[in-house]
Amino acid sequence: MAKFSLVFCFLFLSSLFIDFSVATTKTVGYYEIKKGDISVTVTNYGATILSVKVPDNKGNIADIALGFRSIGQYTNDTTYFGALVGRVANRISGARFHINGKTYKVFPNEGNNTLHGGHRGFGDVFWTVKSHQKDGHKPHITLTYDSFDGEQGFPGDVSVSVTYKLLQHNQLAVIMKARPLNKATPVNLAQHTYWNLGGHNSGNILQNKVQIFGSQITPVDDKLLPTGETAFVKNTPYDFLEPRVIGSRIDQLSAGYDINYVLSLPFTSIIRKAAKVHDPKSGRVLELWTNKPGLQFYTGNMLKDVKGKDGAVYKAHAGLCLETQGFPDSVNHPNFPSQIVKPGETYKHIMLYKFSTE
């Protein structure tokens, strides 16, 4: 009888694709939202987007978000496929910063620096599902996470939430909020989905045409840390002010694109267009709107024979990331827009994806 129980448990967990080390403490859930021709699947592990399915210009549905076959792969990877990253997305130089004269040391997980919140950031924790409506008038899912004082070295308790919501006309809204409860702390959340509009297993994105509504970038050193300066993109390989094929000048860079754009319009609480991507083969179009001042454009340079879902093997440039954000390492550059949020204040980050065809 005991042997039968063990076998049953093994089959049950395997059917859910749950990693045993994860399953011992928390339960992995999968949640779908659907409206019209679009469907999105999310898990409470890392508030991660697992799939986004939309039609091409012939009505064929494909999953355009890169991802893994099992949750176990998500717990052991460094790609951040689909994750909600924080408490501070992107890099913090020296894994330290100062607030009100006090130095805070955070967990270094990229050499001496911190990337996407440390070795166990928000993309590597279990979130709580507060509400979920699969379809109907308001398909959505809202997940919350309570970040504790000292987590990965960050100060103060912070209440965090993210809502994924489907709107009319194949639009996906992502609404991220954070409220510090007792200490001032940096907050910079980002949604880290890798997109391939041809389908997640359709090859590379080098023939996609991209437009980025940012006339400047924040240059980086050889560790991808901002120098604290800004530079105009005009007449450089970073110039996407007009629609341009990604691969047209990528060979002028050492590996590919991985840079923060300063969005052109003044930073306000009102959302504005940040980027547009067009895949010529499928005709699919993605427009991204946001209320944040920066956009990290990343072309999957570090992907190397990554085994993904549906038997896909992701190589370099298999997908692109468009991560709206505060500027990287803002905590160490007073000239950058501040990411410090105080008790009584609410951080709010909006992303609106508009999917269509041409």
UniProtKB/TrEMBL annotation:
Its EC number is 5.1.3.3. The active site is at H192 (proton donor), E323 (proton acceptor). It is an enzyme of class 5 (isomerase). It catalyses: alpha-D-glucose = beta-D-glucose. It comes from the Eukaryota. Transmembrane segments: none annotated. GO terms for biological process: galactose catabolic process via UDP-galactose, Leloir pathway; glucose metabolic process. Pfam families: Aldose_epim. InterPro entries: Aldose_1-epimerase, Aldose_1/G6P_1-epimerase, Gal_mutarotase_sf_dom, Galactose_mutarotase-like, GH-type_carb-bd. Pathway: Carbohydrate metabolism; hexose metabolism. Residues 1-23 form the signal peptide. Belongs to the aldose epimerase family. This is Aldose 1-epimerase. It comes from Papaver nudicaule.
